[in-house]
Structures are given as C-alpha cells and as structure tokens.
Amino acid sequence: MIVVTGATGGLGGSIVEHLLTRMPADRIGVSVRHTAKAQHFADRGVRVRQGAYEDPAALRDSFAGAEQVLLVSGNDPAADMVSLHRNAIEAAVAAGAQRILYTSQQGAVPGNPYRPSGIHIATEAILDDSGVAWTALRNGAYGPLDQVLGPWQDTSVIARPQDGPVPYTDRADIAEATAAILAGDRSFDGPVDLTAPNAVTFNDVANIASDLTGRPVKRIVLDDEQWVADQIAIGVPEQMARLMLTWYQAARAGFFAEAGPLPAELLGRKPRTVAERLAADVAA
After folding, report:
1. CA distance 264 to 193
2. What is the sign, positive or negative, of the torsion defined by CA atoms of 151, 253, 257, 100?
3. Distance between CA 194 and CA 173 in Å, rounded?
4. What pLDDT sits at residue 78?
5. 259, 234, 278, 247: which is closest to 162 by C-alpha?
6. Beta bridge partners of residue 219, listed in sequence order
7. I want to staple 259 with a disulfide (CB 3.0 to 4.6 A). Which of 12, 19, 167, 254 is the partner?
8. pTM (2 decimals)?
9. What pLDDT is recorded for position 131?
C-alpha cells in the first residue's frame, strides 16, 4: 500500500494518476482534507480517507497499512509548516510505514536565502531522526513559467530581478518520476534531486522566446526594490513579493544551478525542455 497526501492538489493528484498506470488501484491510498474532492479516485478503487496535517489521529488512520507514505509539503505561509510536517512524519511512523517520502525543494541547504528552504531543511532533519527509511524529493522549480518570467508574451520583455541558472522542470515530469520511484524496485535514501537536465538563465529564455515568436524578446534586469514596488503597484501583497524576491536572490547565488539526469532515467525519455514548454505556452 502506498498512501499519498495532498492528492486533490495539482502535484499530488498527478502522482496518483501515474501510480494508477503502474499498480492496482487497491494498493493506492490517499489522505485528503476533503474526501468528496477525491471521489474520482474512490470510484476507480483507490482507498480514500480523511486526513489533515493538523489532525494527527486522522493521519494515523489514513496512513494505516501503508508501506510507503508520500508527504506533499504544505505551502501555507501563515502556518507553522515544520510542526505540521512533524505531525505527518510522526503519524506515518506510528502507522508502521517502512519508508516516508517528502516533496522537498532543490537547493534545500543552509544559506539559501529562499525562505521556504528553511522549512524543507528542518523537515528533512525530522525525517532523518525518525528512525524510518526516508527520501526527500528535492524538486526543481516546477511552477508555470509565466510565474517567474512575467507577461513576456504581451510585453516582449522579461523584466525581472537579476537571476541565475535554473533547471526549470515540468510538473508533469516530476509527478511521473515520483510515481516511478514509489512503484519501482529501486530505493532512494536521503535527498535526491528531480530536475530538468539543463539549467538556463533569463537571457537564455529570452533568446529561446525570440526564436519561437520571430520577434525580439528583451531581458531587462530590474533593481530588487524597484521590482518589489512594481509588484505592489499591481496588487501583489508586499509579503508575497518579498518572498518571491528571495527566490531570485537564491537563483543568482547559484543555489538552483545544478541539473541532474535522474528524471530522464526514471521516465525513460528526455524531460520537457523550457523551449518545449514555451512553445506550448505560445501556441495556447
């Protein structure tokens, strides 16, 4: 039995979909806050139980019988996510899980200025002290490209703070690779990177976008504080803008620069490139 948390979210739901292609549905369970939202999985034979990181007793019930538990990391900026992750880890241990997997982040190492890194570092330390085999899936940046590039299709400009090389990774590839790890025979202990095989900068992306569209796409480097002010001016809360700024600061410092081959090995094919993803965005 493999139990996946966060299965009504984008990443967790996609992981379950890929698991369903690799193993019988009755060996898959999901632990979700609202079971009605997972009815589509229950209809296909997946075990659906209610569980939330704030409720250790419900978690233990939802994890019962699981050989492996995949904990999808929380992202509520107002919550004490380390304590909530600790609840989930302790519940998985109490339920008898033999391995706990956790969706961490590439570059989750001391000194990384990107604020969520501290949550992942602390959670990995809890896993290491749990007494159970564990795997931290340090995922490359897998959000929509427009989230970090801005409205370049409208402006023909990528106007963002100074960046650095990043192996931007397709969420669908991460989900499929994660399912391959969960359902496969190969064990991965400790942290493993799941990233696209090549890291690119915004200058690289501007050149790719120019070739795709047939028009010049410029890269403009904005001062950090000017960018924050611009974000606030268009309605982004200052706290959120400054959180995102720490991501650009981490990228320019090289914390996301390393790209790895593991997803390609797990997928048996080349992961989607930035060029392919941009082409799809342009076509859409």
Report:
1. 12
2. negative
3. 9
4. 83
5. 247
6. 158
7. 167
8. 0.95
9. 97
Instruction: Please report, as a single letter, which amino acid is at residue 169.
Output: T
Ramachandran region, residue 252 (left: φ > 0; alpha: ψ -120 to 50; beta: rest): alpha
- Tokens 């749990």 -> residue: 130
**Residue 275 Cα distances to 205, 226, 255, angstroms:** 8, 29, 22
Which residues fall within 8 angstroms of residue 215, CB to CB, at 6 or more apart?
156
pLDDT tens for 106-160 read 999 999 999 999 999 999 999 999 999 999 999 999 999 998 899 999 999 999 9
| Tokens, residue 52 | 């939330």
Residue with tokens 């033999």: 98
